[in-house]
Amino acid sequence: MRVVVSIGGSVLAPDLDPGRVAAYAEAIERLSTDGCEVGVVVGGGGVAREYIETARDLGANEVELDQLGIGTTRLNARLLIAALDGSANLSPATGYDEAAAALRREEVAVMGGVTPGQTTDAVAAAFAESVDADLLVYATSADGVYDADPNADDDATQFESMSPAELVDVVLPMSRNAGASAPVDLLAAKLIDRAGIRSIVLDGTDPSAVVDAVLRGEHTGTDVVPGGSDEPTYWTGASDA
Q: What homologous superfamily does CATH list for 2-224?
């Protein structure tokens, strides 16, 4: 089973805590031990935002700001690679072919951002599509997909499951509102819809939640299920160990 896990920078390294990074490395190693081919895309989080805001105040243009963000995602990716202790590619992949080659070498393929104008949400979806992943997991600071921004609307309702097209419909208005917090960005949602990738959006604060979701399909987030998709057979046969 091939899975791509997108780990938000604010989830992996909110305060550069080595224990948290090590816990994520443990979770990924558990997936590998249980027979998964694992690709990981790491976000920039709060550190990236601080660099970007500082550079914006200094007059940097949008492409320069994106490059700063990409650099920060790759720093976070290097932290995870260090914690994986030889089981991952030696340095963050800078493109999809490079990441796919790491998978072929039976390594955990770790990457950050790729190109200006594209978030790591979209990178994860494109990576999953490029390697025909069975599952794409977004480990975020949110606990799933809602019909409105739960930070702004007390009546927002979480979706237990939805189609990729419904995900696009939900994310689209959020992407237009300044300050709104979409669970994944619009381009990522469109790529998931185009490729028909089975996906999960969940609260990744506890790395074990990713293990439970990947190995058993057990989580409290949102399933994004393409039309005609059956529950993966590896969930029904997975060990509860």
A: Acetylglutamate kinase-like (3.40.1160.10)
